[in-house]
Amino acid sequence: MAPLASAGGAVMSARGPEVAARVGIPLGIAITLCFGTGLISHWIQHPPGWFYWPAHPAWEYRLTQGTHVVSGVVAIPLLLVKLWAVYPRLFRRPLIGDPLRIVERGSIALLVGSVIFQLATGLFNIAQFYAWTFFFTTTHYAMAYVAFGSLAVHLAVKLPVVRAALSRPLEQPGTGRGLPRRAVLTAAGLSAGVAGVMVVGQSVPWLRPLSLLAPRSGSGPQGVPVNRSAAAAGVTTTALDPGYRLTVVVGDRQRAFTRAELEQLPQAAAELPMACVEGWSVSARWTGVPLRDLLAAVGDYRGGDVAFVSLDGGLYGRSVLPHRHVIDASTLVALGLGGADLDLDHGYPARLIAPNRPGVLQTKWLSRIEVLP
Description:
It contains eleven helices and ten strands. It is α+β, with helices and mostly antiparallel strands. The chain folds into two domains: 209 residues, Fumarate Reductase Cytochrome B subunit (Up-down Bundle), CATH 1.20.950; 142 residues, Sulfite Oxidase, Chain A, domain 2. Strands 2-1-10-5-6 form a five-stranded mixed sheet.
């Protein structure tokens, strides 16, 4: 039994503030990146009046949202190692103690609970697995502030402990022959790196073969993944109806276009990424009618945002495009993808494609375009 006791003691010696402080640095960076890029994504979809998001560079949302998902995935093994390192201290008595200890314990409980909630629900979201009844987007956004705020409070309370732990040597003589702290940190770094590589291929094409954890690999009709199919949206019949019309409203004028009439208008092509809130993105060549030309064919567009309405009456069946995107030459009412007509699941007969936008706002199966007053 002596060797087991010795091994157990050595394993316990690898735990403590020295490991927790060091693994906490990359964990804090990952959480900060995840928080910041998550705010950007939310503000693009639900823009406050002060928020500005440019039309270019076209790849910017692809970068920020890919960073959001990758940093969240990387944070998972780092969080597990940090919890392992401090686990015995979480139950050290007294559980309550003086006011400072109450703040410390409360911030730890709130931090651990909120971060676990954010990472778990975020991971389920990119896999499109929803084992809950609450609306993910608003809940995830609200809890992001709780997680980041509790992290800030925790750092403020624990800063003296962190500084002292970082000033001490990682390995101390006479601590046993068991698991060294350096090995724990190496394992944490390798685990985080492997987790990141196994999901980053959603956004980085040359790493796609390694993305074993990525739910979207770039496969799909015409080489672009599909989150919501025409069948799931219930638009198969209406999208293929010979009587389909796209109604465009500019001021007091409006016109209904058939698919054939849209094809007869001057066409353009744009190489733009389809970048999803779930982290995956794929560059593709889209063809169709430049939006500004389509508006001009109906009336005098004098500026303002433009609303897009889908045949899909679901949650994301409507989007609003800011003026700076409306007038951009690469913003299209797309009719084709990769040299062929749009696949039904990609929005046939017509869809919106604009630079530097989340895929959820690139409205498919368009039925109406209207310049807002």
